[in-house]
């Protein structure tokens, strides 16, 4: 027979907590005095990256490429550059809230969309000028 790792112990004030009027509670060996969970761990949403990035050295604020995204809005590829601007703003908001991983990811997407918009816009402008000169 194997012995169980749980036992019954009398904990002070437990009669008020368990509602049964019994002064005993069955607990496991590893769970006697567990610290209370912080309020951020009680949420059902995705965990913030600040909890995982505290061990890494501080690298500064991630780039949001807002100037590049605003510059790309002058190119004639409006659906792509507007989405790049939105990603850039979302990256800035994530960085201000402390979510550095999310800010980096959104910043990279904003940079990609802005560069694609500038390249496609330049191609469209060059083609328009070359075809209208004829």
UniProtKB/TrEMBL annotation:
UniProt-annotated stretches for the region Disordered: 1-21, 35-57
Residues passing through the membrane, by range: 65-89, 110-131
Biased composition (Low complexity): 47-56
InterPro entries per UniProt: CD225/Dispanin, CD225/Dispanin_fam
Cellular localization per UniProt: Membrane
Gene Ontology annotations for the cellular component aspect, listed alphabetically: membrane
Keywords from the UniProt entry: Membrane, Transmembrane, Transmembrane helix
PANTHER family in UniProt: NG5, TRAFFICKING REGULATOR OF GLUT4 1
Family under the similarity heading: Belongs to the CD225/Dispanin family.
Protein name as catalogued: TUSC5 protein
